[in-house]
């Protein structure tokens, strides 16, 4: 028979949170990983993570970790995923992980403490075997981003202030795991009225920017409105 509340709840369960931080270097999507120094996963890569204290609020804790890594706080970029709570996911005991993901501009590439934890960007398609169940968390974040990028202009947050249409197409193709017809892709983009032609060309120095390609930015007012209301960007 169900009992609520439980007569003798088990409070010996720890909570943690991990961040799937996704960036775009102009050529490929990447995920930020750290290297473990503790057994039994010593030397293995894992997601930036922390244990929660009993009075830690979930989203605030994730935002605090984000700020420690990038030296600024932007809550609009962070979203909770789900709880990962397999009984034996942690070798030290019962730990339930409430994971989050965030989109990061690679212009904010590195914080001073990264060397201490051997933090590194790893290509989206080359994630190795990670500690704990972090591969499962990364895969869940990838699927969430797939859904979001079709309905919200979140992909623009990954681009530099000035980008080429080639970079934008590469971003969408990598996120969705598809190849698009160049002409049709651009036609759909221009229908959104998000793009602003800067009337200048790339010098070829930016990663993923071919010399002579047109440079664009996005209309921030339109972006903020569409970010809230959503849109159907179907392929």
Structure description:
The model has no long low-confidence stretch (mean pLDDT 85). This protein has 5 helices and 9 strands, in the order E-E-E-E-H-E-E-E-H-H-H-E-E-H. A hairpin with a 4-residue loop joins strand 1 and strand 2 (29-35). By secondary structure, the chain is an alpha+beta fold. 27% of the residues lie in helices and 24% in strands. The longest helix is centred in the middle third of the chain and has 18 residues, at 134-151. It has 2 domains: 14-150, Alpha-Beta Complex (Nucleoside Triphosphate Pyrophosphohydrolase); 153-229, Orthogonal Bundle (Arc Repressor Mutant, subunit A), CATH 1.10.10. Strands 1, 2, 3, 4, 5, 6 and 7 form a 7-stranded mixed beta sheet that branches. A two-stranded antiparallel ribbon has the order 8-9.
Relevant terms:
235 residues; alpha+beta; Nucleoside Triphosphate Pyrophosphohydrolase; Arc Repressor Mutant, subunit A; seven-stranded mixed β-sheet; 5 helices
Topology:
Blueprint: E1 14-24, E2 29-35, E3 45-46, E4 49-51, H1 58-70, E5 78-84, E6 95-105, E7 120-123, H2 134-151, H3 165-176, H4 182-191, E8 195-201, E9 214-218, H5 220-229
Parallel strand pairs: 1-6
Antiparallel strand pairs: 1-2, 1-4, 2-3, 2-7, 5-6, 8-9
């Amino acid at each position: 028979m169900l009992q609520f509340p439980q007569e003798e709840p088990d409070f010996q369960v720890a909570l943690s949170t991990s961040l799937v931080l996704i960036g775009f270097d102009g050529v490929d999507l990447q995920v930020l990983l750290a290297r473990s120094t503790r057994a039994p996963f010593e030397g293995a890569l894992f997601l930036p993570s922390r244990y929660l204290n009993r009075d830690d609020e979930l989203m605030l804790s994730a935002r605090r970790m984000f700020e420690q890594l990038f030296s600024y706080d932007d809550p609009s970029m962070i979203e909770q995923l789900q709880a990962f709570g397999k009984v034996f996911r942690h070798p030290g005991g019962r730990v339930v992980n409430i994971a989050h993901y965030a989109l990061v501009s690679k212009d904010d590439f590195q914080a001073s403490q990264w060397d201490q934890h051997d933090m590194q960007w790893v290509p989206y398609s080359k994630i190795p075997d990670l500690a704990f169940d972090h591969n499962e968390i990364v895969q869940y974040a990838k699927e969430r981003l797939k859904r979001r990028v079709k309905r919200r202009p979140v992909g623009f947050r990954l681009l530099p202030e000035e980008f080429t249409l080639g970079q934008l197409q590469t971003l969408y193709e990598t996120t969705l795991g598809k190849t698009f017809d160049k002409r049709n892709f651009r036609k759909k983009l221009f229908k959104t009225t998000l793009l602003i032609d800067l009337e200048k060309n790339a010098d070829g120095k930016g990663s993923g920017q071919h010399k002579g390609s047109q440079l664009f930015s996005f209309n921030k007012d339109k972006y903020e409105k569409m970010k809230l209301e959503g849109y159907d960007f179907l392929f």
